[in-house]
Here is the input.
Amino acid sequence: DQQVKQNSPSLSVQEGRISILNCDYTNSMFDYFLWYKKYPAEGPTFLISISSIKDKNEDGRFTVFLNKSAKHLSLHIVPSQPGDSAVYFCAASAIGTASKLTFGTGTRLQVTL
Amino acid sequence: NAGVTQTPKFQVLKTGQSMTLQCAQDMNHNSMYWYRQDPGMGLRLIYYSASEGTTDKGEVPNGYNVSRLNKREFSLRLESAAPSQTSVYFCASSEALGRGQPQHFGDGTRLSIL
Here is the structure.
């Protein structure tokens, strides 16, 4: 049972436009969420996180939005750049499980010129 | 500053062979983790070590053993490799267990078992 779902396997966006990556979760015990970015043949790199006490967290071009009632979060990248082309993983951890992360299956973002 | 280093990067094994995947971090982190990534699935936690001297099972520990050799090193052993263990294995570390402690990943070991 996939507790963290990224239903879009891929996304293509033009350079300069907004990229929106979505993530849904089913476990109501999840209270901390992270986004990781992964280039081919490299390990995932931490991008941004959000606690369930917030509904938005921003870091430069990256903003994560959390809608707890819908069990949904999204990552916005504005403006998108070619270097943003990568696979993006959503991850979540549950209350009392410390750093044990449950990952989604990833969304491949391609930013075209 | 290398971060998290995994060796080897690639390995092919025959069913039944044993193998140890090595991981070392130079960030003075207390916690370390082993994940596997399979096609169409997210990363799944195999084992983790909250601190030197402790190890705990993750989501998919069967068929694996781990050793936290010291603060820097955390190895993953396959005693009798099976084709179902063909995967990409990632090691990660964080300052400690807990929120706000993002995990830093190595570049992975691609393991094929024939």
Remarks:
- Chain B touches chain A through 29 residues (CB under 8 Å).
- The CA atoms of residues 94 and 101 of chain B lie 6 Å apart.
- The longest strand of chain B covers residues 87-94.
- Chain B is about 0% helix and 50% strand.
